[in-house]
């Protein structure tokens, strides 16, 4: 596939060294999904467990939604702390059909080190085996558990941010909507990295990127269909599944939203940021020129990737330390 003429040259050059080829994730179908899951699982199983000086990592099984199985969360925190820490509650990406907590180990360890916070990352159930509302209800249940057990976890329940990337960003936005509409838990901030927000596929960017690195229109349609089935694109879709459909966005916590210029999600992210601002929600929005979906994960050493990482870090620091 030829590269987009607007792609950042450093990102283009770095693709040949990518840990997992981004083109693999743009090829999605029921037949491809088992192989992609095996490929991802094997890649992360081959990596050594996350270890960093002063970092404590622990997996817990916590209560899932009413009547559903327990879910796995991974807790990251500094080994020696006395005061309750702010916390980032995190959801991994993977188009609702792929992914596991291990894929974000390095990023979460970095937040613990550089923000001085704890992190709880949730392993939600995946579609199509577990369609909506299972993924977002798992994420909400994990948030409820985190805040309920804040004292034991050494977390300040008034300084909890909710965040995620790609599908995880969409689930983070849906979880924040659920927390608002169910009267809690309190969320201090939302960090949405290229969030997957709109199943309708009607924005210009959702049509433009029929061919794209990492995530194209066909992959997006496949993922939303896996999550929603025949309801996709109809009026029967819940805003907790597709947050772009929320009728009102007032009363939500401050937000940080970022997206690449060359990706399906570009316009729905820009529109969500605009609507948040118009609803009175303080919002910071970044669109990275020449960037494709997940660019900073595939080419982390590029200048644009470092800039994106620094922006997220600064936003989290401001949000979790100013209270």
Describe the fold and architecture:
This protein is an alpha/beta fold and 323 residues long. The chain has a single domain, classed as Rossmann fold. Helices cover 36% and strands 18% of the residues. It is built from eleven helices and eight strands. The protein has helices spanning 9-14, 33-45, 105-115, 134-148, 150-153, 167-181, 204-208, 217-228, 266-278, 295-298, 303-321, and strands at residues 55-62, 71-78, 85-91, 118-123, 155-165, 189-193, 255-260, 283-288. Strands 1-2-4-3-5-6-7-8 form an eight-stranded mixed sheet, with helices on both faces. The longest helix is centred in the C-terminal third of the chain and has 19 residues, at 303-321. The model has no long low-confidence stretch (mean pLDDT 93).
Mean pLDDT, all residues: 93
For this structure, the quaternary state is single chain
CATH domain fold name = Rossmann fold
CATH class: Alpha Beta
Quick summary:
This protein is an alpha/beta fold. It has helices at residues 9-14, 33-45, 105-115, 134-148, 150-153, 167-181, 204-208, 217-228, 266-278, 295-298, 303-321, and strands at residues 55-62, 71-78, 85-91, 118-123, 155-165, 189-193, 255-260, 283-288.
List the helices and strands and how they pair.
Layout: H1 9-14, H2 33-45, E1 55-62, E2 71-78, E3 85-91, H3 105-115, E4 118-123, H4 134-148, H5 150-153, E5 155-165, H6 167-181, E6 189-193, H7 204-208, H8 217-228, E7 255-260, H9 266-278, E8 283-288, H10 295-298, H11 303-321
Parallel strand pairs: 3-4, 3-5, 5-6, 6-7, 7-8
Antiparallel strand pairs: 1-2, 2-4
Helix pairs in contact: 4-6
């Amino acid at each position: 596939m030829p590269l987009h003429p607007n792609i950042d040259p450093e990102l283009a050059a770095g693709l040949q060294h990518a840990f997992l080829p981004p083109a693999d994730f743009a090829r999605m179908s029921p037949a491809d999904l088992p192989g992609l899951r095996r490929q991802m699982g094997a890649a992360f199983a081959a990596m050594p467990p996350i270890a960093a000086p002063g970092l404590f990592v622990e997996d817990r099984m916590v209560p899932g939604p009413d009547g559903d199985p327990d879910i796995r969360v991974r807790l990251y925190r500094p080994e020696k702390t006395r005061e309750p820490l702010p916390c980032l509650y995190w959801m991994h990406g993977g188009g609702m059909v792929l992914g596991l907590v291990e894929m974000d180990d390095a990023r979460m360890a970095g937040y613990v080190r550089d923000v001085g916070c704890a992190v709880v990352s949730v392993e939600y159930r995946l579609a199509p085996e577990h369609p909506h509302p299972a993924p977002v209800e798992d994420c909400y249940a994990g948030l409820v558990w985190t805040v309920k057990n804040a004292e034991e976890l050494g977390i300040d329940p008034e300084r909890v941010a909710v965040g995620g990337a790609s599908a995880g960003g969409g689930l983070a936005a849906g979880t924040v909507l659920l927390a608002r509409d169910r009267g809690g838990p309190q969320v201090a901030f939302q960090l949405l990295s290229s969030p997957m927000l709109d199943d309708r596929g009607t924005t210009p960017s959702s049509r433009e990127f029929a061919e794209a690195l990492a995530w194209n229109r066909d992959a997006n349609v496949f993922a939303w269909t896996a999550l929603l089935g025949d309801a996709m694109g109809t009026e029967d879709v819940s805003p907790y599944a597709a947050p772009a459909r929320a009728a009102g966005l007032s009363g939500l916590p401050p937000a940080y939203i970022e997206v690449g210029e060359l990706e399906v999600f570009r316009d729905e992210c820009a529109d969500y940021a605009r609507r948040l601002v118009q609803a009175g929600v303080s919002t910071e929005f970044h669109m990275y020129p020449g960037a494709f979906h997940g660019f900073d994960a595939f080419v982390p050493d590029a200048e644009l990737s470092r800039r994106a990482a620094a922006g997220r870090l600064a936003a989290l620091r401001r949000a979790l330390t100013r209270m």
